Amino acid sequence: MKVLIIQPWISYRGAETISLLESIGLEKLGIKTSVACLYVDKARMSPEFHNINYILPPKMLSKLFYSSRILFYILGFPVLSILILKNMHSFDILNPHNLPSHWICAFFRLVKQKTTIWTVHGITAKTTSTSTVIQKILWSFIKPLDYWATRRMDAIISESEKVKKEVIKMYGRDSVVIYPAISQNDFKISRNNNGIKQKYGLNNKDFLLLHTSYLHPAKNVELSIMTLKKVLKTIPNAKLMIAGEGPNENYLKNLVKKNGLEGKVIFTGHIIPNKIADFYKICDLVLVPYFETEGCSSVPFEALLVGRPSIVAKNSGADEIIGRENLGLVSEPVNTAFTKAVLSFIRNRNKWENKLKKNKGFIAKNLSAEAYAKNFLSKVINKKKSVV
Question: Which listed residue, of 4, 9, 260, 284, carries a Cα 20 to 30 Å from 347's Cα?
Answer without folding.
Answer: 260
